[in-house]
## 1
Amino acid sequence: MFDRLQAVAFAPAYAALRECFELEHGDPGRDLVAHLTGRSVAEIARAVSALAAPRTEEVLVLWPGEERAVRMGVGDLVDGFAELWSPGSDDLLIADPSRRWIVLLDHEAQLWFLDA
C-alpha cells in the first residue's frame, strides 16, 4: 500500500493548514466530534471516513509528530488505517487538498472536525 502513496513536503503542507485552521484544540467542546477511547481501530476508521469524504476523493494525511505527509484516496486511508494510526502514539491530520475542512484524530482517540 505504501508504495502507492505520494509523499508531500511536510513543512509547507502543515504551514498552509495552520493558516486556515487553529490546530491547537483551544475550546475542548467546540469541535470535538467523539472521544473514541476503547473503540476498535476499525470503528475509529469508519468514524474518520464518515467525516472525511467519499472513498474516491483524495486527501492530504499528515503525522505532525513524525513530520510526514502523503496524498492518498480516502478508500486507501480506511483500508490501511491500522497501519497508519496507532492509539496512544499517533496524532493524525486529514484534510481535503483545497483546505475546506480538516479531521484531527489525536493519540487519545479524540476525533475533531474543523470546517473553514
## 2
Amino acid sequence: MSNFRSESDGFIRSCRTTSLVVAPDAFAERQSVVLHLIKVARELRKLNNYFASHAIQAGIRPALFPGDLLTGLVERDPLFKVLRSLEVLYADTKANAAYRLDLKHTVGPAVADL
C-alpha cells in the first residue's frame, strides 16, 4: 500500500506542477514559471531529493508541446539543458541506468525516487 501511496503522491505533484505552468495567460509568464520550476528542480537535485525533482520534471514535460510558442521560448534559454539532463536522469532506458549510477555515487542523505 505504501508503494501505491508514493506513486500517487508523485503523480499528484506532477499534476500540480503542470497546472502551475498552464495557469498564466501570457506566454512570458508561463516561460518564467517554467524556468523557475527548472531552477527549483535543479536545486532539489543538488540536495539529493530525487523524488521531488522527478515530480517537477514530470510536470513540466506535458506543458511543453513541440512547435508551441512556449516551447520555443524555453528552448532558447540555457536552463533548458538542465531540463534535458533531468529527463536523461529519470528516463526508463536501460533499466534506469543513469539514475541508478547517480544514486550509487550520492554522498550524504538522499530522498530516493522509488
